[in-house]
Amino acid sequence: MIRDVEKPTSEAGLTLLDKLKLLNFRCFHHLELNVPEGLSLFTGQNASGKTTLLEAISYISTGKLLRSHRDRDAVRSDETHCEVSGILSPSQTEISIQIPEVGKKVASINKMSLPKASDLLGRLPTTSITAFDLPLSQGDPASRRMFLDLEIGALQPSYVHKLAIYKRALEQRNSLLKMAMQTVIDQDQFEAWEFAMAESGSYVRQQRQVYFAKLAPLASSAYQEIAKKEILSLFLKEEEGGLDTESLQQAFALSRSHDMRRGSTSLGPHRDDFGMEIDGKDVKNYGSQGQQRSVAIALKAGSFQVSRETSGTPPLLLLDDMLSDLDEYRRTALAALVINQSHQALLTCTEASSVSNHIVSRASELKVSNGEVTWK
Amino acid sequence: MLFAKPFAELVGELEKLPGIGPKSAQRLAYYLLQQSDGQVSALVTSIIKAKKDLRFCSSCQNISEADQCPICLDGARDQSLLCVVAESRDLYAIERAHEFKGRYHVLHGLLNPMEGVGPERLRVKELLSRLESGMVQEVILATNPTIEGDATAMYLAKLLKPLGVKVTRLAHGMPIGGELDYADSATLMSAIEYRREM
Which long-range contacts (C-beta less than 8 Å, at least 24 apart) are formed by A96-102? Predict the structure, then answer.
């Protein structure tokens, strides 16, 4: 009860992005930006760098780029290294990712480097809704797994750790399977790696189930808000081998000879997926472009709400040009779902006029051109 | 510009050492060139001598001057307790604590199929033959709590248990004198999982 009365306490967990600094990140040479609280609207021509600003924020939030799997793609073409950093408020913590001239990216907190970039996850929770989300409803299962893994990892650091164990043990087992094609490998060796996979894998599957149980209804109702009559149903596909350590370990053991022939592991959390149906029809294969886009948005809007409900504070919202593709009705619905719920949101669009008035009226407007940002 | 051939060869040899990249190799090579002849030959002699005079202890497989190392020859040490470690440096780490009174067995590596390391590359056969006498009653698996360390311990436990010995694993949890605030989530998770009743 006290929490409701004392406002500072109720917002104690809220993290905002105070400042964003870019050095040689994509089209930007050098940028220092005070990021406004509340809603800000970034306008500018195509290819002016609007999306890059959102990508930079998402990069220090998740450790992953939005549009590419290769970190080096983010380095400005005439440069050899780059850096993105953000100062968080109220803690004044600085989080950053550097891509050095040689070697892998280095993530750090207050200039102290972290063992892995994924250790940044959860420091600055964000939800991005961009055109790069389309693979969620159109692409292969790997895109959907990565979405779940990043979302769960941001809420629960131990998930990232268990997932890393699973992936490493999986790689070891796959190497062993390939070795087994040439020589005889004693079965106890398989068992050692399969135990590690089963233990971490069962944790990963259980956490995905828990997360998905929260996500599915929220994403479905978000879809209904956006698409009116249609009903979206989301379900985890059958998880071969089950959820607990023993059954998963047994399944790995049983698939051993089959896996030896193919030289890789045929079942497990690294093969899982979830299905999406609108009025009983599979979205990926039969959905229209519009439906697929709305499903991707609904999934992200759902994850925004899960994050808000789980951590008690809304994540920073990054909305890229999605509004202009939607009709007025859908725009308003989306605004009600996410924009109005967030404490800090960054929107991009080519012209402010494409955004409804009640959004523009309460937004700080900034103009992006030629790698520079100016206040309007 | 190309290096003079002898210099390039020296750099090339130094680069093969673990943890030495091209730049460190060059720095070391310059350093060696600046030393007196006496200093350089002392280094060379010590490398050759170490290589010639050292072998692996025939029972614990640790580096030793004689056929058996001082720890294995020490009659005061408990023969029923055997601590299995991955590398010699792990043995010395445990010795520094002056608490463990049993004996050791050094595997010289961990299972790692990605790098082509299977049990035949580790001193596993030697471990099994040490247990034949029936003197050892407990084997402590003290490999690091990494994925490879855990998998190797798991593999060994599977081999050893049928022989009738007690097999134990090092505990993991909070470091002594550590602060919860600074512990990483993986350590905290396992400390909670392996909590004990008071």
Answer: A96/A21, A96/A60, A97/A59, A97/A60, A97/A63, A99/A71, A99/A72, A99/A74, A99/A75
CB-based contacts of A303, cutoff 8 Å, min separation 6: A127, A147, A151, A215, A219
Is A179 in contact with B114 (Cβ distance < 8 A)? no
Residues recorded for chain B:
198
Which residue does chain A place closest to B188, by CA atoms? A158
| CATH number 3.40.1360.10 given to B73-169 | yes
Q: Which residue of B has its CA nearest to A171?
A: B114
Percent of all residues in chain A with a pLDDT value above 70, rounded to a whole number: 96
Chain A nearest C-alpha distance from B173 (Å): 15
Residues of chain A with pLDDT under 70: 1-12, 322-324
pLDDT in tens, A329-345: 887 888 888 888 899 99
Please report, rounded to a whole number, the percentage of residues in chain B having pLDDT higher than 70: 99
Please write the tens of the pLDDT for every residue from A79-133: 999 999 999 999 999 999 999 998 899 999 999 888 888 889 889 999 999 989 9
Q: What is the extent of the structural domain holding A194?
A: 133-312
Q: Does B154 touch chain A (CB under 8 A)?
A: yes
Q: Is the peptide bond before A90 cis (omega within 30 degrees of 0)?
A: yes
pTM attached to this predicted model: 0.86
- B5-53 folds as Helicase, Ruva Protein; domain 3 (1.10.8)
Q: Domain count of chain A? A: 1
CATH assignment of the domain containing A143: 1.20.1050.90
Asked if residue A21 is part of any domain, the answer here is: no
The DSSP result for A62-93, as a single string, is HSS-SS-S-GGGGB-TT-S-EEEEEEEETT--
**pLDDT tens digits, one per residue of B25-84:** 999 999 999 999 999 999 999 999 999 999 999 999 999 999 999 999 999 999 999 999
Domain boundaries, given as residue ranges, for chain B: 5-53, 73-169
